[in-house]
Amino acid sequence: MANHDPDLTDGLFQLSFLLLSRLTRIAGDHDLSVVQVRLLGILRDREPGMLELARYLDLEKSSLSGLVDRAEKRGLVERIPSTDDRRAATIRVTARGRKLTRTVADAVHAEIDALAAPLPDADRKRLAALVWQVLPAEKK
Amino acid sequence: MANHDPDLTDGLFQLSFLLLSRLTRIAGDHDLSVVQVRLLGILRDREPGMLELARYLDLEKSSLSGLVDRAEKRGLVERIPSTDDRRAATIRVTARGRKLTRTVADAVHAEIDALAAPLPDADRKRLAALVWQVLPAEKK
DNA sequence: TATTGTTATACTCTATAACTATA
DNA sequence: TATAGTTATAGAGTATAACAATA
Fold first, then answer.
1. Which end of chain A is more exposed for a tag (fewer CB within 10 A), N or C?
2. Quick one: pLDDT band at residue B139, thresholds 50, 70, 90?
3. Which helix (H) or strand (E) holds B78?
4. Residues of B whose CB is below 8 A from A8
């Protein structure tokens, strides 16, 4: 009955795929892809240039162009031309994008809370603490 | 200094994206995509039909056709025509696919072990147990 | 009629390479 | 020359709808 020594790697990937699948569905409910949600999430508290954004998302700068194009076309973000470097622009989330970000974030939170709800409160806290301990410093 | 009450949802998604990024890189080292790795992983101990496989991967059956086509073209899997239902086929991993699956799985395991290595042994076990507790029964 | 699977089509996402404009 | 960003192109992955073959 008791899982003796369940494998950490397998469990983490099972959980990752489950979370990703939930996120994909929630994003899809708002006509967003997972990467668009990540983009919006990054823009919550930053106004990065394209190269910086590419680094955050671990994408080539060329991949960013289309991504930002599609988000801009939907009025979720805007390109703000830099005043001091006429090659550069920063990407800023619009009011509409910010609203959508909040909506999606709330839905995601509710979903994950429900997933973890069966755990006793102390275990949920322990899990959160352990997860954050595994994350490398630059992700925190 | 101490993260007081770090958010569970945020931590889990940070970790999920980190794991996914590691998996993407490892898969790419072997010219595989993440979904191809998942496909191979499922075939380790099953020989499902296309519809069954679609259900495992949470994809439309039409998406499976191309996925399996590409894997078959590389000699990683093969379509075995069903003997009792001439519409149907099962998907079987080849010897070559099995070997590649092991290689990738080993690399992934090593990578995640390294990631979790800073944790004391007891904490690693606790983390694994908690993760498995969050997973719904059908994933175990 | 229902089911298994493929095909046609369209879109998103991604990379590489070549390019433009500015520094 | 170097840097910020876009464009051209190609391919994987995905879905919807229509289809073929078999049950």
1. N
2. low
3. strand B77-81
4. 112-113, 116, 124, 127-128, 131
